[in-house]
Write a structure and sequence with these properties.
The protein has about 160 residues and is an alpha+beta fold. The protein has helices spanning about 5-10, 25-40, 85-90, 105-115, and strands at about 20-25, 40-50, 55-60, 65-70, 95-100, 120-125, 130-140, 145-150, 155. Helix content is about 25%, strand content about 35%. The strands form 2 sheets. Strands 5, 6, 7, 8 and 9 form a 5-stranded mixed beta sheet that branches. It has a 4-stranded mixed beta sheet with strand order 1-4-3-2, with helices on one face. It starts with a helix and ends with a strand.
Length: about 160
C-alpha cells in the first residue's frame, strides 16, 4: 500500500526526476565540459526561434537525462563563485547538483587527471544529530555552478 506522500505524488502524475536546468554564459564550452570531464552525452540539442535562437541541450548520464544546459542572455548575471564550503551554503537559490559515487576519492582522482580540482576536497562529515556520516567533495563547473560527489550514507 502507498503512504500518504506517495498517494499525493501519484495524484499529481509525477513519475520520476527529469532534469535540472543550468544557465551558462558559454554554451559550447559548458556542453563540452560536461561531456569530457563528467562523461555525459548529448541527448538532443536545439534552438528556440521564439527566443532569438537561444541554444539548449539535454545531457544524459548512464542513459538518464540529468541536465538541461541553457545559453544565458548576453547580459545575464551569474552566481558568485564559491571557493569554500561556507561560501557555497551562504547563497540562496540554486545550490548544487550531486552525483552518487561508490568512492569519492576515486572520482576525484579521475577528475584531477582531467584537470578538474575540488574547492572542497574529499572529506567525511557527520550528519549531526544522527548516526550517519557521508563522504563528499565539491567542484565548480566552468561557469561556477557547484557539483557535489557523494558516497552512500553510512553509520558512523
Amino acid at each position: 500500500p502507498l503512504n500518504a506522500q506517495q498517494q499525493s505524488a501519484n495524484t499529481l502524475g509525477l513519475t520520476r526526476f527529469d532534469h535540472m536546468s543550468v544557465n551558462v554564459a558559454d554554451f559550447d564550452n559548458a556542453v563540452d565540459w560536461y561531456r569530457t570531464k563528467l562523461g555525459m552525452e548529448v541527448e538532443v540539442s536545439w534552438k528556440v526561434s521564439t527566443l532569438d535562437g537561444k541554444q539548449l541541450a539535454y545531457l544524459t548520464l548512464n542513459g538518464a537525462r540529468v541536465l538541461e544546459i541553457v545559453a544565458a542572455d548576453p547580459n545575464g548575471t551569474g552566481l558568485r563563485r564559491a571557493t569554500t564550503f561556507g561560501q557555497h551554503f551562504s547563497r540562496t537559490g540554486y545550490g548544487h547538483l550531486c552525483f552518487a559515487t561508490d568512492s569519492v576519492d576515486d572520482t576525484m582522482t579521475a577528475l584531477e587527471a582531467r584537470g578538474v580540482t575540488a574547492f572542497v576536497k574529499a572529506e567525511t562529515y557527520a550528519l549531526d544529530g544522527t548516526e550517519f556520516e557521508r563522504r563528499v567533495a565539491f567542484i565548480n563547473d566552468p561557469e561556477g555552478n557547484v557539483i557535489e560527489f557523494g558516497e552512500p550514507l553510512r553509520k558512523s
